[in-house]
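hey so u asked for the seq, here:
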Amino acid sequence: MTVDLWVWPAFIGLIFFLIALDLLFFHREAHEVSMGEAFVWSIIWTVIGVGFAGVILVWHGSTAAGEYLAGYVIERSLSVDNIFVFALIFGYFSVPPAFQHRVLVWGIVGAVVFRIAFIAAGASLLEAFHWMIYVFGGFLVFTGARMALSKEVEVHPESNPALRFLRRLIPITSDYEGTHFFVRQAGVLMATPLLAVLVVIETTDIVFAVDSIPAIFAVTDDAFIVFSSNAFAILGMRVLYFMLASAMHRFIYLKMGLSAVLVFVGVKMLSEEAFHMSIWISLGVIAAVLITAIVASLIVTGRRGQGGLSEASSHGS
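ran it, structure tokens below
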């Protein structure tokens, strides 16, 4: 689909307006986000994100709407895997729960900016060099296989190059100063640990984007659909964090499901010229894999939990 040039700045402006609305009005005061609040906001962002598919449907038809939904589902599901890493980073820096929302909101601002650059570069490469489709496809298959074989994720922020550069660039206070990223102490401008956390979160998200953006290019070559589906998916990621961070141990098969999705879209990208698969079939396969992984995870961990309770009660008696 083709969009007029004015649509891009208008849409980017809409995304930043929604972020500002959230930051300045709905979460103006620093507070710990409750499960109920996160649930309500997750529904709101999901309705907005999925609802935009209706705009695409009216605007450019069912195929474009299907491509948008596929991209949205891929990015939203991959962001769930990111949540565990973000929780480890917050734990490493001992970030108070009341400050975490501010870090995630500003992290999303940076994520939108970097994704604009990545998507523009990816679209330009695919347009200029058709063989790049095989590079992207092979990379997705490799990434999916690596994800399936990888062990538990560990974070080592102390080795993050961007964090080391920040520490050389500006002194960092020893304690958090509320939700401030910068403060002045004795007339000297200093960063706070909250800025260090933001830098680590941002650079980690860039690594994740290297996986997710090629995955969306596997279901559509339209840069606007890639960006819009990506943007709406990451808008809901921060509230998803507050809903799922403490329950990530229950999604034991999610990584296998995500790896299967990456391999599937990679193979689809590699074989597109020989065999074209309908976007709605692709969307169905992706949704079926993810739903199966989530449901199986909840069933198995639920049974384990019940078994643990039964064993504890029998020992107690």
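Strands lie at 182-185, 188-191. Residues 279-316 form the longest helix (38 residues).
lmk if thats what u needed
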